[in-house]
Amino acid sequence: MRLSTSAKANIFYFALAVAVGAAIYLTVSDPAAERRLPPRGFVTASGTRFVADGEPFRFAGANVAVMYRDEDRALMPQTLRHAAEMNLKVVRVWANGEGGPEDGVTSVGADRADWPRTHRFRFAPNVWNEEAFVQLDRVLAEAARNHLRVQLTLANWWRDTGGVSQYLRWAGIAGAADDSAPYGVNNEIAMAFYSNAVTRQLYKEHVEKIVNRRNTITGVAYRDDPTIFSYELMNEAQAPTGRWAERRQWMAEMSAFVKSLDPFHLVASGSWGYRSAVERRAWLEEQKLPTLDFCDVHNYPRDDRDTFVTSTRSLAEFIENRAAAAYSINKPLVVGEFGISPDGFEGTSQPDWFRALYEATARAGVSGTIFWILTPDPRRGYGVTYATTRDDSLRAEIARGALALSSRADAQPPAALLRAGQHLVPRQFAFARAAGDTEMLPEIDLAGGNAASNEHASAPDANAQRDTRPTGEKGTAKGGILYKFKPQSAARGRFEKTGGGEGYVWGSGVGFFEYVIPARADWHRVSEIVVRAHVQPVFPVDARDGRISGTRVTLYVNDTDCGSRLVPPETPPDAIIQEWRVTSLLPRINATRGRALSVRFVVAVEADLPYGANISNFPAGFDAHNRAPVEVEIR
């Protein structure tokens, strides 16, 4: 049957109307469809910002002392009221605590003024403390009355609340609690928490107790309560260098588990940040997990010197770098802990430091800040107290900063911080010798000089040779020029950390050292440039047990990439000498014409193993046969 154009149009619009009506009916009548949308009042993540009921949500907040000590519990309503009076919108609360006095829980690494912590959530694997859960019910109810939202931290890496050490003790694994270790935890042993079947199950049981709970004060199920801002899987979850994948796998499992019980509340990892470019890369791989909704960092410059935050300017740089990292994966950033003691830091007062942080986070588009810690007790380390007049000016500064953040809730991240490729390294330190500095000049051997050719070098990535051949088996330069450099003769350098002295120069992380061959007046036909260097990795202090096989070093001659070498650690008295044979046209043309050459040893930010470079004299006992630690042979 043939239909007219108008008839076809009528049929089309009728079918469209039926489809739309059916969709509306299914959405309204199907409870499952309703559950696909967050309940009213919930905070959600939308790109780099938070949103609540369609409006941008940006906040200042506080960690609050309301859970463990009797005094803190009694004054909990006043603490939350003061938080609201300071224009704060979110408070961070500990919803964890394991073990008891018989388990050896101590205050190692904790603020001793906040001791003892007697109200635990769990005394033994199957012994729960209901009164601790009821206190959390009270906190949520009181927070709602004060129009505050609450972040619930579900576990703690550190021992002051039991933490992973207690979980491991219940699983029969000893040694994680170690008074001789920094902050009382042996991180190498404690890593078993992430993979052990018993500890993972114990943790999930606690998560179920929290997420499936119905508030005894309000009658509202936790998973339905918009007062809860987010769950944080763990406070300051650690992982030694090279073991980040173990933590990431645990984060993936546990964040997915939380989402299976409560699909609408936000979830954060709690792995607290990074110090170096390689840590940044691992942190981002973790934060990319689809079941994690926002990124979180902590900053304590007095305690964590490796962040190199020593001024309000470097504080702003710290904030910008972490914000750019979060924006590179299109997620919001929260500064989940920061603090400075009442005596200030590096000549900056405590109120001025807080002001600088709020201004930096406002400019960078950061979505939230949570200081440490609002408390009735003026003795608390980094505490902000309301019980005396000591912190009146500080609390006024916090109130101003909080108001400024919330009043600019719709602010977009600065364009400069959206250029992810410009923020890959948290911080570097550079040096450069002045023009004419004779310390960077090499020793020069002309044709016939004792220049080893290392003729046994093999294919690329395999030509690092332990040179133990007798002198008579070594070749010499014929008709060429040999330049010999001391390690400390580097003309310039840049690394995340760097240093040196007589006979060595080192840099950790990513960066470069550059040596300069001066220009010549004569021409010399060049068929090959051979570069040799005695270079070693610079491993982080927590890189143990051979988890890292070396560092990746790439040679550049006048900006020409001449290939990389995987540089392993050496065992003295042997020495491992890296060699590159450069036949690329541009370097050879420049060398032929006698132009100055820059020889740069680079540990690139994208390298698979970016673990620094140490260029040094040969180890004692190594027969170097008149070799220099850095040699460039023009043939």
What is the distance, rounded to the nearest whole angstrom, between the alpha carbons of the first and last residues?
88 Å
**Low-confidence runs of at least 5 consecutive residues:** 1-34, 448-477
CATH topology of the domain at 429-634: Jelly Rolls
> Major beta sheet, specifics?
9 strands, parallel
Shape: elongated
What does this structure look like?
- The protein has a domain at 429-634: Sandwich (Jelly Rolls).
- Helix content is 28%, strand content 23%.
- It has 15 helices and 28 strands.
- The radius of gyration is 30 Å and the shape is elongated.
- The model is unreliable at 1-34 and 448-477 (pLDDT under 50).
What features would you highlight for this structure?
alpha/beta; Jelly Rolls; 9-stranded parallel sheet; 8-stranded antiparallel sheet; 28% helix
Short description:
By secondary structure, the chain is of the alpha/beta class. The chain contains 15 helices and 28 strands.
Which SSEs are present, and which pair or pack?
Blueprint: H1 5-29, H2 31-34, E1 43-46, E2 49-52, E3 55-57, E4 59-64, H3 70-74, H4 76-85, E5 90-94, E6 122-124, E7 127-128, H5 130-145, E8 149-153, H6 163-170, H7 187-190, H8 192-195, H9 197-211, E9 228-232, H10 244-261, E10 266-268, H11 277-287, E11 295-299, H12 312-328, E12 333-338, H13 350-364, E13 368-375, E14 384-385, H14 392-407, E15 429-432, E16 443-445, E17 465-466, E18 481-485, E19 492-501, E20 504-517, E21 529-533, E22 535-536, E23 551-557, E24 560-567, E25 576-582, H15 585-592, E26 597-603, E27 613-616, E28 630-634
Parallel strand pairs: 4-5, 4-13, 5-8, 8-9, 9-10, 11-12, 12-13, 13-14
Antiparallel strand pairs: 1-2, 2-3, 6-7, 15-19, 16-18, 17-25, 18-28, 19-20, 20-26, 20-27, 21-25, 21-28, 22-27, 23-24, 23-26
Helix pairs in contact: 6-9, 9-10, 10-11, 12-13, 13-14
